[in-house]
Amino acid sequence: MRSQCDGLITHEACAIAADRLPEVSRSLRSARLIIAIAAALLIAYAVIWTQVSSFDMGRSDFTAFYVGGTLLRDGHTGDLYSPAVQQPLHSALIAPDTEANLPFVNTPVAAALVLPATFLPLDAAYRVWSVLELAVLLLAVVLAVRSVEWPPGTPRIWQTAVGAAALAGMGTWTMFLQAQWTPVLALGLVLAYRSWRGGHLATGAAVLVVSAGIAKPHLALGLLAFLLGWRERRVITGAIAGAAGLALASIVLVGPGGDAGFVSVLASSTTRWELASMVSFIGVVGSLFGNGLGAHLIGLVASLLACATAVWLGTTVRRDPSRLDTALVGAAVLSLVASPHAYPDDLVMLAPALVIGVAAAARRTGSISVLTFASPVTLVLGAWAVITVAAAVDLIDGATFPPGQLAGWALVAAAALACIATRGNRERAEVPRLQVAGFGGAQTRS
């Protein structure tokens, strides 16, 4: 018996380890199944991406980025956001297609970042940019896996499985096909998290604000509310510094006239598209009440409620910093709920949040291997699966399935879970633990 236990623990503990062998084996099988499903999905996404035609590239969101970068390269600053300037270039790029203009509505800094890609033809630039954004998302997920605190003895295969699940969501597919910006915000979220865990509060807030400002400011409403609720001087200072730096860079790039054009086009973008096509809660409102003024007012109220909840999450972190993980996950989800403009590709901003949430859930139970139907880890992974499936159903049926847009409801449910977890008791105090050789688990010292 002593040789089987490598002399590390008692005969009683060795018997306990033997009893846990079926549980550990089932847990590892679950991890392998998650990896297999995620790999199959990612391969399918890649195959579909290789089949994207020049016609479809012209109608992708990337064409608008390409227009913005090209106009900035050609010296258009004050009129960068003018439809009269964008339309002729857009039409020439997609000819002989006659699709209406897809306006460039990202920040001037975003136009500067995409500018180097405009030296390539549109088709080649689309391929390069979509792969680059996928690489940014992969980096965000890897950093999340390496940054969170896993329970002692968490098998590496489970860490890989959670990362794979985060990468294989519905948002990755649509982001890859559209060559969208949202992975930049996902990377900013995890870099902010790393900074905050390391005690660099101002740096984390600055990175989060800059990444949101570059990519999609409207997706960060809940995160900004979270920072306000935190009411930590260094956090607020960092956020202000990040916003000031971004504003200064924009003025240098396009001048006050260009910045005014950006604000104008951003404000008008909330009424440009069908509300029912969005994954934020405004999509639920639009699918039920249409695109009228009433729907916009209801959506505004919902956004304010989501932001108010994110403020509350920030106050919980101020009172108890150990709740940062679950509170940040909740704020990220609420940011999508509150956004006035969000599509399936924007779901990738939650990829690192999934990793943070699973690790926090595993710490609550002491092990990631506890996968009962109602276990915290199962609930987090289940919420991610529901969001992905709901977004896929919405995309297939045009959000006509009752009760309208499903993704918005799924995000609300996920936010509620994060709020409940944050409000609950503090994570268990650590107790002395001993690794059980060969099982990847741990037993408490008795």
Ordered list of secondary-structure elements with their pairings:
Elements: H1 11-50, H2 54-58, H3 62-73, H4 83-94, H5 108-114, H6 122-147, H7 156-167, H8 170-178, H9 183-197, H10 201-214, H11 221-230, H12 233-268, H13 281-289, H14 293-319, H15 324-338, H16 351-365, H17 376-397, H18 406-423, E1 433-435, E2 442-444
Antiparallel strand pairs: 1-2
Alpha-beta classification = mainly alpha
Largest sheet, spatial ordering of strands = 1-2
- Coarse shape: globular
Report how far the terminal alpha carbons are from each other. Answer: 19 Å
The overall pLDDT, averaged over residues, is 86
Radius of gyration equals: 23 Å
User: Count the helices. How many?
Assistant: 18
Helix fraction, binned, reads: 55-70%
The total of beta strands comes to 2
Describe the structure.
This protein has 446 residues and is mainly alpha-helical. It has a domain of 306 residues. Helix content is 68%, strand content 1%. It has 18 helices and two strands. Strands 1-2 form a two-stranded antiparallel ribbon. A hairpin with a 6-residue loop joins β1 and β2. The two termini are 19 Å apart.
